[in-house]
Amino acid sequence: MSPPLTANYRLIDIDALDADAQFPPELLNPPCLPVDISEIQGLASQCRQLLQRGDQEGALKVALENVPYGGDEVGKDLHLQTVLEILSSIRSSEMASTLSRLSSLPNGTELLDVLTKYIYKGMKDASSGAGSGGKMSVLLSWHEKVVDIAGEGSIVRCMTDRRTV
């Protein structure tokens, strides 16, 4: 006997019927250790010292390796400003070579993915602020170079990663 014609099959939750389709919460939301604001401030001062010595690549590497995923919004914004300061200090003629050296490191793909996250977050902040056209052009230049070196996969990984910067 066939079901009545009034049954709406689009309302059936198929995932509830299949136990294998359920993902554990720790897989969907990776744990992030809490980060104190003083640690982020110390990291910002360390990056500024590297910038003053002329080591922009080292400052960028330090900033991208120590992402405060578990920090509060104030700490994340402070770290974003640090990364943006570093990106602004690197000349456009040095962007590609800097990114090539970063990508050749053992964790280079992850570093470029984190940089993509900061570029997008900087674009979000720049689009809401007044007089931020210069910052947006710097971020667009960096985005172009990152995609040239890391490929479109960096964008996909950035958008699917649940950890926010």
Description of the molecule:
With 165 residues, this protein is an all-alpha fold. The chain has nine helices and no strands. It has helices at 14-17, 25-28, 37-52, 56-65, 73-89, 95-103, 108-128, 133-150, 153-160. The protein is globular, with a radius of gyration of 21 Å. The N and C termini lie far apart (56 Å). The model has no long low-confidence stretch (mean pLDDT 88).
List the helices and strands and how they pair.
Layout: H1 14-17, H2 25-28, H3 37-52, H4 56-65, H5 73-89, H6 95-103, H7 108-128, H8 133-150, H9 153-160
Comma- or semicolon-separated keywords:
165 residues; 9 helices; 65% helix; 0% strand; globular; mainly alpha
pLDDT average, as an integer? Answer: 88
Sheet with the most strands, sense and barrel status: none
- β content, as a range? under 5%
Task: Determine the number of helices (DSSP H or I, runs of at least 4 residues).
Answer: 9
Question: Which stretches are poorly predicted, pLDDT < 50 over at least 5 residues?
Answer: none
> What does the oligomeric state look like here?
single chain
**Percent of residues in helices:** 55-70%
Shape: globular
Q: Which value, in Å, is the CA radius of gyration?
A: 21 Å
Please count the beta strands (DSSP E, at least 2 residues each). 0
Distance between the termini: 56 Å
Helix/strand order: HHHHHHHHH
Derived from helix and strand composition plus strand pairing, the structural class reads: mainly alpha
